[in-house]
Q: What sequence folds into this?
């Protein structure tokens, strides 16, 4: 009896971890176009029914956030893959709406460091909200310690090896640099116990870093912004389906979700799937706004 009790005590944290419910919900499955009838890029990770992590928050995401009954007070972390408009535009709306909730404490925002084309994430948030400097400086009390909810920003330096950027209980978040033309960009892997979701963000694949970050992940969210016959500048910014396939072949995710769908890829799902299938045999799904995927 003693032995059984000892085993139960020893196993209980493991059982609890295994039972943690984790789900990915797509808030915005589109890119920067207005004609795609989709919100721009944004995702939620639900942990035990709570909206704990946001990944990007482009235009339209704020409305989707409401529609899926997400709660700002439950958010721990916002991960910005890069600072383009279609990944960040609704952040001010989210912050303002927090005033009317019980949201309090620190809300961590991670994103890339600066280069000659883009500000650092820290500077980006200050240019939006900081007292006497920001475009919406009237929200500056979210940075200076006065408001209940405080934004805490973190710049992620360019790094071709995955780094651990956040840890909270059984949750860890890793980041790695990806190539998105001249724009600093980050891919993230969120691990909760033995479950994980990896986000490519916008990237061309030229750094060959996502393959290692996404190794054996439960869900890889890859951005399907260009078709196979794309050429020129678009291929410096985004992955062709064959590149997505080659990455998935090496990373072997349990499931591949295609998002950041654009007018140039919408309607070409059969062709896209065919190209990816040359390399990756696992399940492939095309995301829509509010698509919900339980991580098993
Ligand atoms: Zn984008």
A:
């Amino acid at each position: 009896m003693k032995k059984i009790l000892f085993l139960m005590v020893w196993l209980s944290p493991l059982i609890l971890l295994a039972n943690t419910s984790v789900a990915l919900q797509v808030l915005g499955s589109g890119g920067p176009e207005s004609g795609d009838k989709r919100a721009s890029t944004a995702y939620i990770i639900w942990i035990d029914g709570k909206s704990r992590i946001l990944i990007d928050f482009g235009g339209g995401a704020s409305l989707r956030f409401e529609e899926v009954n997400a709660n700002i007070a439950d958010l721990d972390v916002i991960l910005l893959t890069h600072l383009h408009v279609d990944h960040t535009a609704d952040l001010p709306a989210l912050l303002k709406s927090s005033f009317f909730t019980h949201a309090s404490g620190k809300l961590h925002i991670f994103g890339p460091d600066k280069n000659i084309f883009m500000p650092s994430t820290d500077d980006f948030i200050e240019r939006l909200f900081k007292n006497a400097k920001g475009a919406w400086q009237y929200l500056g009390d979210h940075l200076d310690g006065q408001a209940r909810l405080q934004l805490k920003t973190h710049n992620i330096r360019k790094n071709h090896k995955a780094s651990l950027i956040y840890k909270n209980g059984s949750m860890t978040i890793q980041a790695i640099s990806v190539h998105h033309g001249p724009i600093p960009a980050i891919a993230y892997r969120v691990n909760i116990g033995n479950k994980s979701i990896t986000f490519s963000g916008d990237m061309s694949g030229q750094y060959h870093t996502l393959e290692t970050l996404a190794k054996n992940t439960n869900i890889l969210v890859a951005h399907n912004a260009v078709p196979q016959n794309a050429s020129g500048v678009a291929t410096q910014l985004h992955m062709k389906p064959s590149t997505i396939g080659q990455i998935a072949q090496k990373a072997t995710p349990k499931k591949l979700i295609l998002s950041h769908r654009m007018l140039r890829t919408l309607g070409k799902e059969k062709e896209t799937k065919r190209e990816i299938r040359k390399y990756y045999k696992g399940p492939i799904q095309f995301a829509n706004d509010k698509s919900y995927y339980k991580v098993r």
User: Anything to note?
Assistant: The longest strand covers residues 171-180. Residues 2-19 form the longest helix (18 residues). DSSP finds nine helices and 14 strands in the chain. The chain has a mean pLDDT of 95.
